[in-house]
Amino acid sequence: MSCCHDSACSATVSSGDLNTSRWRRALWIALTINAAFFVAEIVAGAAAGSNALQADALDFFGDAANYAISLGVAGMALTWRARAAIAKGTTMLVFALWVLASTAYRAFSGTVPGAEMMGVVGALAMIANGGVALMLYRFRTGDANMRSVWICSRNDAVGNLAVMLAALGVFGTGTGWPDAIVAAIMGGLGVFGGWQIVGQARDEIRSGQTVSATVPAE
Fold this sequence. Notes:
Helix 2 runs antiparallel to helix 5, helix 3 (51-72) packs antiparallel against helix 4 and helix 6 (144-173) runs antiparallel to helix 7. This protein has helices at residues 15-18, 21-48, 51-72, 78-109, 115-135, 144-173, 177-214. With 218 residues, the protein is mainly alpha-helical. It has one domain (7-209). 80% of the residues lie in helices and 0% in strands.
């Protein structure tokens, strides 16, 4: 599951780190891969009728958004970084709630997703996350943000494994319940993560406004 729901992973790269060409190149590659698989899992999930795939796309969206924030607004003031995080967290919340609602509908309508497509896409996603984690391995001993980005990519493989297990469960039982259970868990984590992001960002904005109000004008 994505672990990028804390301050260390929310666009806290220092200006010196951002000027490292290898680090920026790695982030761009990771951003491209995660954004591509976010779209791929949304499309594949709809085609296969799998909510677990759509829920797993939350991880790819969360990581892609973190990489984009790190590259785009990390050097800006805390308030602007917090606003970007609110936009990300709100989008995650809406998407996660949609996944949960869709999961409930399909679970009780008796829809059986395509296990084969679930397994194939889950395996490809695991390869993608493994490749990103391997690419970022050299940064594992860097600052908090560098280390957390690597850990996030490594841990996301767990979500991909969950999708593959759900596919195996669907194939073995002939029902959609394994897919629904995995989707519900991952969707719930998406709601929790999005709520955390929005809450922390709002606290940071209030903190920044308080500091600005207490600084005497020159």
